[in-house]
Amino acid sequence: MTDLIVRLVTAADAPLFERVADDVFDHEVRDDLVRAFLDDPRSLMAVALDAEVIVGMASGLVYVHPDKPNQLFVNEVGVAPPYQRRGLGKRLVSTLLDQARERGCTEAWVATEVDNHPARALYESLDGVEDSPPAVIYLFDLAPSASATTEADGPEHPPRDGVQRPPTA
User: Fold this and answer.
1) Cα(71)–Cα(149) distance, rounded to whole angstroms?
2) Crossing angle, helix 117-125 and helix 88-102, to 10 degrees?
3) Cα separations (Å) of 70 from 6, 42, 66, 107, 143?
4) By CB atoms within 10 Å of each CB, which of 17, 77, 87, 89 scores lowest?
């Protein structure tokens, strides 16, 4: 494996997303969404590059609330299987955390499934502390109902927790 570069991406880096290793993102990368993400000043993404191919990423969102200092929500971390278990996820998330500090964030947080042991080990290795008592996450499906969509609307949105459920009647 060559030396990997880990860095934040900007709008000028949109062409990098034309070469992404398998399993870094959950779905196919779309040019329009890449541009929208990179143009949003509160969206952050660190990528790992191997010979100009994105082999890992961590994304987050700096958010503002009327009664709290800026915080970072770490949204997602993805590393291509051949690059896993080499400290790359830690480098990616550390890059996000460093940028959040520079932007005045006083706290960062992330949610993961209880049985996602690799993710939990990653966050613990970065001195993340598991919240107690554990939070309960509610999902709200905001996609149009299946009966109201057509093939032209595109694929059905999968649940954010990644669990495939049978269609409802």
Assistant:
1) 36
2) 50
3) 24, 10, 10, 8, 29
4) 87
